[in-house]
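In the previous chapter we treated chains in isolation. Here, by contrast, the input contains four separate entities that must be folded as one system, with a combined length of 458 residues.
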Amino acid sequence: MKPYVLIVEDEDALATLLEYNFGKEGFETALAMDGEEALLLASERTPDLILLDWMLPKLSGVEVCRRLRRRKETSKTPVIMLTARSDETDRITGLDFGADDYMIKPFSMPELFARTRALMRRAKPSLLEDIIRIGDIEVDSQAFRVKRDGELIHLGPTEFRLLDHFARHPGRVFSREQLLDAVWGRDVYVEARTVDVHIGRLRKALKRPGKSDPIRTVRSAGYAFEGVE
Amino acid sequence: MKPYVLIVEDEDALATLLEYNFGKEGFETALAMDGEEALLLASERTPDLILLDWMLPKLSGVEVCRRLRRRKETSKTPVIMLTARSDETDRITGLDFGADDYMIKPFSMPELFARTRALMRRAKPSLLEDIIRIGDIEVDSQAFRVKRDGELIHLGPTEFRLLDHFARHPGRVFSREQLLDAVWGRDVYVEARTVDVHIGRLRKALKRPGKSDPIRTVRSAGYAFEGVE
DNA sequence: GAGGTCCGTGACAAGTTTGTGAAAGAAACA
DNA sequence: TGTTTCTTTCACAAACTTGTCACGGACCTC
């Protein structure tokens, strides 16, 4: 489950360079060549970070950023503006209308990665870590293992992805449909109730006599995972 | 309540300048002259943002940042490093060990404020989440929870939506029809008196022996929700 | 203070949502 | 290929919600 970066850049050379480098660095990427496409792609799948060119066809970077901020899903997504301009006024404007950082072209890749990691760590610390700890449970999504007190817990692949998803969004309530999208995949037809069965199995696997259930059922809404207090 | 900024800077002139400017800009400030004092002040009251000099007596800025990140309260507090060095390696190190941004001295105040605002805008809502507080009651519409004094209050879905609606419009009187529209939905046929029953159930759930009823009945008009004084 | 209107609430039946064991395929593995 | 594990669906029970009603009390008007 790689972090997903949306690159919005109309210069072919730079776009390719960015895609190549981010791919190599372990990110999943998507490329939008203009502002409208950027908004479309961002709504199709919420990116974990957006690289946004200042000058764009159709919609300017400023306007794209403003609209992204208005949408609930992307209101907190980190945005790094890429700008050729260098005067201070523009920079401030860039930050003030909702971008989180900016880079002035030409910039160095290592620095861009550093800023990317810094912003991602803030927005979703769990994205960059291989091992996610939640409560007393350790989820190692690289090694596909789950541990508690050093004890391995065996899970089926689907249960694992389900737990992994929950662990990355602790406390948040997901509807069955959202879980199907995130864990099973966007275009798989599976009964919503199937989620219940897997939740049940996950619960059984994580259950411990004394402790309370880390998975909370939110009646008529879905499920949420919360570390045991 | 003003945002609280911790300034960690050992150069007298710059420290004073920062305190003065941030004060003028509407921030509450505290000043630490070395790394140890910084950690002490940060633990006394969690800042909303930290300005951290790279070179410090006793503990370096890097080390201070690292330790701040280890503490639960400050693990997500935005940190802006102030550095005199300008070579790229240092910058990256700075961002990679946990700082959110950096400024190279000498920097411009307007730009520092822009970055400050950008980071705070990101950090603040995450601290407050989508929790509405009304009186002593907390309504978390993201997590579908209601709390008072840390105690969870269980509500059925309809009661929850009802409370949520009230919490978003404190003090306002709603007719039964308005409540049906807002909570049940525009096109649901339900008796107006049903609202009464749910109000009753909500009251029972929120009731506390000593305190007064937060829901006010407005005879022949409807109901209003008011925090308890 | 009589009569009418409005409101609070316990009871309850109907409806909805969730938990779960079992069964039948699918898929992985060896 | 045969075995084992995993996934999906189904069916049913259990748990929980909900809308309505009926009754009694509160309040208002004249």
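Chain A has two domains: 4-127, 129-225. The longest strand of chain A covers residues 4-8. Compare these points with the single-chain example from earlier in the chapter.
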